[in-house]
Design goal:
The protein is an alpha+beta fold. It folds into 2 domains: 3-76 and 227-238, 2-Layer Sandwich (Alpha-Beta Plaits); 83-220, NADH Oxidase, CATH 3.40.109.10. It is 41% helix and 17% strand. It has 9 helices and 8 strands. A 4-stranded antiparallel beta sheet has the order 5-6-8-7, sandwiched between helices. Strands 1-4 form a two-stranded antiparallel ribbon. Strands 2-3 form a two-stranded antiparallel ribbon. Helix 3 packs across helix 6 and helix 4 (107-121) crosses helix 7. The radius of gyration is 19 Å and the shape is globular. It starts with a strand and ends with a helix. The model is unreliable at 222-231 (pLDDT under 50).
Length: 240
């Protein structure tokens, strides 16, 4: 069975790992994280969420959690994807044929971009629950709570292409290659909504783009996206 190796010297007791554990296998006691013994689903969300890199997922050959089929793949550790790995990813997505254009925003450029997205969608009736949650997060400035749009994502990958078909093919290749490179994430419908609402303001962040924005992929763990799918599995483990 898989278990967690928690480096107590690195752990700051922030509790972020407890919020993303879908099985309730982590608690904070005496300002340090510890396993509860409820078992591990092997999703690695706590690994990617920990701001200090204090958690390591230890998997055995007998691991049988719902994510154990990925145990031979590199686990997303929450850090920034290097330029070298991004180049490998881009090549796998289009084989260097120029049918798609790829851009990644991070740091201050991503912050400025997300501010543009907010100003475009803040009054929209579509995606209203998520926009409301984002508004509350912005007002509270609680950095220990994940951004409801980017979750734990620190980089966002944008796929520009001449057609939706080209973008879908590139996206599928990205997911497969991402398993080898330790790249995980989820597509953002909210950011694409902003593009539909105000194409010009979004494109201003990509002056070199010559094609249309077709997909937006937040690099980070996608607990927000997979939790509803995994809820029945979680219930089997917890008995609820």
């Amino acid at each position: 069975m898989a278990h967690l190796d928690i480096d107590l010297d690195k752990c700051i007791g922030c509790g972020k790992c407890t919020r993303v554990c879908m099985k309730g296998n982590i608690v904070v006691e005496n300002k340090k994280a510890k396993e509860t013994g409820k078992g591990c689903l092997e999703c690695s969300h706590c690994v990617s969420t920990c701001p200090k890199g204090a958690i390591t997922l230890i998997q055995s050959e007998e691991s049988s959690g719902p994510f154990s089929n990925l145990k031979k793949e590199k686990i997303f550790d929450g850090g920034l994807i290097t330029d070298a790995d991004l180049d490998k990813l881009f090549y796998a997505m289009d084989h260097g044929k120029g049918r798609c254009e790829f851009f990644v925003l991070e740091g201050s450029k991503l912050d400025a971009f997300m501010e543009t997205v907010w100003n475009i969608v803040k009054d929209s009736e579509r995606e209203k629950p998520l926009i409301k949650e984002w508004s509350e997060w912005r007002e509270n400035h609680d950095m220990l709570q994940p951004n409801p749009v980017l979750w734990e994502g620190k980089q966002v990958l944008f796929i520009f292409a001449d057609s939706d078909d080209r973008a879908v093919i590139a996206s599928n290749r990205m997911i497969v290659k991402g398993l080898d490179l330790g790249i995980r994430g989820f597509h953002s419908n909210l950011i694409m909504l902003a593009y539909v609402m105000d194409r010009q303001r979004i494109r201003a962040h990509f002056p070199a783009a010559t094609k249309e924005l077709r997909m937006c992929y937040v690099i980070g763990h996608g607990r927000r996206m997979v939790e509803p799918i995994l809820k029945p599995i979680m219930n089997l483990f917890t008995g609820h």
